[in-house]
Design goal:
Layout (H helix, E strand, L loop, with lengths): L1 H23 L4 E8 L19 E2 L4 E9 L2 E8 L6 H15 L6 E5 L9 H8 L6 H24 L1 E11 L6 E2 L1 E4 L4 E3 L8 E4 L6 E9 L5 E8 L10 E2 L3 H13 L4 E6 L5 E2 L11 H15 L4 E2 L5 E11 L5 H15 L6 H17 L25 E11 L3 E5 L3 E2 L1 H10 L4 E5 L9 E2 L2 H6 L2 H4 L7 H22 L1
Parallel strand pairs: 2-13, 4-5, 12-14, 19-21, 20-22
Antiparallel strand pairs: 1-3, 1-6, 3-4, 6-11, 6-16, 7-15, 8-9, 8-10, 11-12, 17-18, 18-19
Protein name: Neutral/alkaline non-lysosomal ceramidase
Organism: Gimesia chilikensis
Keywords: Signal
Length: about 500
C-alpha cells in the first residue's frame, strides 16, 4: 500500500512538472474580464459627509480585471467603480482570488476609480465581516461586492492567452483637468477657487496631460480585446443620487463604438489628489459626457500609433511601506463626537471642522488599541477591522508590474498628488509608466507632497498621514522600478 501511495505521489509530481514546463514555454499570456457590482436602490451612496440613499441607476458599476501570466509569474489588476478600496475589502478579495487562481495574493491589486456615485459600503462591510446584525439587502450587496472582483480575476485568468500588446501615450489637448489648489496673495493655499477672485495669484501645481495606454489585441487576428488607460483626473462629475461609473463609462462607450461592443475598457485613475474638472477661468463646469467622450476620442485617435511592446518578460513585485499616521488625542476625539452630532442633527458646522472631526474618528480607531470612542457609532466610511489598533504607522502596499522593456504599472494607495506621480514617471526607466492610485487601501485618504503641508487647505486637512509620506511612496516605487529594469538587463 505504501509503495502504491509513493507511486501516486511521484506521478502527481511529474504531472505538475510537465504542466509547469508547458506554462513556462507559453510566453506571456493576458486575459481581461468584467463583472457587475452595481448596488441595489436604497443602498447608501458615497462621496460626502452625510447619508444619501440611491434612487436609481444611470449606468452600471463594474469590476474590470486584467491578468498577466508568464511561466510561474502572474499578476492581476482589478479596477472597480468605487470611491475607494477599504483594506478590509482588498484583503478579502485578494485572499479569495488567490485561492481560486493560484495567483499570489500580494500579486493581486484591487483599485478604485473614485466615483462619487458609487456605494458607501465600508460600515456594511465592517458589520458583515464581524457577523453583526445588518439589513438583509445590505448584507446581500456586500456578498456581491466581494464576489464581483473575485469573479473578474477568475474569469480574466481563465481567458488568459498569448496576446499582442501595444503601448504609448496620448496627450489630452482639450482641457478637462485642472489643478484645484491656488496660491493666494496672503501666501496661503486654497482649494476650489476661481480666477475671478482678485486674491488668486496662480495654480499651486501642474496637471498631467498624458493618457498612458496599453492595448491588448488578439494574437491571431489583431482585434482589440481590451484597453488599459490611465489619466489624472478626479471623478466627481455626475452628482445626484443615481449609480454611475462617472466619466470612465463614456470612455468605454467611445472605445466600443470604434473597436467593437465586446472591448473591455479598463480605466485606472492617475495621481489626481489635487486635480479636478472645474475650469477656474470658466463659470460653467465641464459635464461628465463631454469629459469622457473627449478622453475616449483622444485615446481612439492614438491607438493606431501605439508601438508593440518589446519583449514579454513579466515581473511583479510588492513592498510594504509603513506610512506615519497623525494622532488623535482624547480631547480631539471628544470634540469630534460633539461636532458630528451637531452635523447629523442638521446643525451648522464649519466644513473644515467637519472634515477634521471625521478624520480624527478614523485615526482614533487606527492609532489606539482601546479607542477613545465607539467608532462605529459615529462614522460610516473609514471603519476597518484589519487596521483597528494598528498603531503609529499604516502599512500599505506598493506594487509594480512590468512587461518587457517598455511598460510598468505602479499601484499606489490613497489619493495621490499629481506632483508625486510626475516624479515617478520622470525617473522611471520604463517608457510607459502607468500609475494607478487608490489601490488596496484608501485609509490614507489624501497623500500630498511635503511642500503642500505648508500650504494647507482641504487635501492637507483631509489626510491621515504625516508630511513626507508621499515621498516615501515615490522612493519605494522607484526602487521597485529600478530593480525590475536591472533584472531585465541582466537577463
Amino acid at each position: 500500500m505504501l509503495f502504491v501511495s509513493r507511486c501516486l505521489v511521484f506521478c502527481c509530481l511529474c504531472l505538475l512538472s510537465l504542466v509547469s514546463a508547458a506554462h513556462a514555454g507559453d510566453g506571456l499570456q493576458v486575459g481581461v474580464a468584467e463583472t457587475d457590482i452595481t448596488p441595489p436602490v436604497g443602498f447608501p451612496m458615497a462621496g460626502y459627509y452625510h447619508e444619501r440613499l440611491a434612487e436609481g441607476q444611470i449606468d452600471p458599476l463594474q469590476a474590470k480585471a486584467i491578468v498577466f501570466r508568464e511561466g510561474e509569474t502572474a499578476g492581476a489588476l482589478v479596477v472597480c467603480d468605487l470611491i475607494g478600496i477599504a483594506t478590509d475589502l482588498s484583503k478579502e478579495v485578494r485572499r479569495l482570488a488567490a485561492e481560486k487562481t493560484g495567483i499570489p495574493a500580494e500579486n493581486i491589486v484591487l483599485a478604485a476609480t473614485h466615483s462619487h456615485t458609487a456605494p458607501d459600503y465600508m460600515k456594511e462591510l465592517y458589520l458583515y465581516l464581524g457577523k453583526e446584525k445588518q439589513q438583509p439587502l445590505r448584507a446581500e450587496y456586500i456578498q456581491k461586492l466581494i464576489n464581483g472582483p473575485v469573479e473578474a480575476v477568475v474569469a480574466a485568468n481563465k481567458a488568459a492567452k498569448p496576446a499582442q500588446l501595444e503601448t504609448g501615450a496620448a496627450v489630452q489637448k482639450t482641457p478637462v483637468a485642472f489643478n484645484r489648489r491656488f496660491v493666494m496673495k496672503d501666501g496661503s493655499v486654497k482649494t476650489w477657487q476661481s480666477l475671478k477672485n482678485p486674491n488668486v495669484i496662480r495654480a499651486a501645481g501642474p496637471i498631467d496631460p498624458r493618457i498612458e495606454l496599453l492595448a491588448i489585441k488578439n494574437a491571431k487576428d489583431g482585434s482589440y480585446e481590451g484597453v488599459l488607460s490611465n489619466f489624472a483626473l478626479h471623478l466627481d462629475t455626475v452628482g445626484g443620487t443615481r449609480w454611475s461609473a462617472d466619466y470612465p463609462f463614456f470612455i468605454q462607450e467611445t472605445l466600443r463604438e470604434t473597436l467593437g461592443k465586446d472591448v473591455i475598457s479598463i480605466f485606472g485613475t492617475g495621481c489626481c489628489g489635487d486635480i479636478n474638472h472645474s475650469n477656474p477661468s470658466a463659470s460653467v463646469r465641464n459635464k461628465v459626457d463631454f469629459i469622457g467622450n473627449s478622453l475616449g476620442e483622444t485615446i481612439t485617435a492614438e491607438l493606431p500609433k501605439l508601438e508593440p511592446v518589446k519583449g514579454t518578460g513579466l515581473t511583479v513585485q510588492s513592498q510594504v511601506v509603513d506610512l506615519p499616521l497623525q494622532d488623535a488625542s482624547q480631547p480631539e476625539v471628544q470634540r469630534s463626537i460633539e461636532l458630528l452630532k451637531v452635523a447629523r442633527a442638521g446643525g451648522k458646522v464649519d466644513f473644515f471642522e467637519h472634515v477634521t472631526a471625521y478624520k480624527k474618528m478614523i485615526l482614533d480607531q487606527m492609532r489606539h488599541k482601546k479607542p477613545y470612542a465607539e467608532t462605529d457609532q459615529h462614522i460610516t466610511w473609514g471603519l476597518s477591522r484589519s487596521l483597528a489598533g494598528i498603531g503609529a504607522t499604516l502599512p500599505v502596499d506598493v506594487t509594480v508590474m512590468t512587461i518587457g522593456e517598455d511598460v510598468a504599472i505602479v499601484c499606489l494607495p490613497g489619493e495621490v498628488f499629481v506632483e508625486l506621480g510626475l516624479a515617478i514617471k520622470q525617473a522611471s526607466p520604463f517608457k510607459t509608466t502607468i500609475i494607478v492610485e487608490l489601490s488596496n487601501a484608501v485609509e490614507t485618504i489624501y497623500i500630498p507632497h511635503r511642500a503642500a503641508y505648508a500650504g494647507g487647505s482641504y487635501e492637507v486637512t483631509n489626510s491621515n498621514l504625516l508630511p513626507g509620506s508621499g515621498e516615501m511612496l515615490v522612493e519605494a516605487s522607484l526602487r521597485l522600478l529600478r530593480q525590475a529594469a536591472a533584472e531585465k538587463r541582466a537577463d
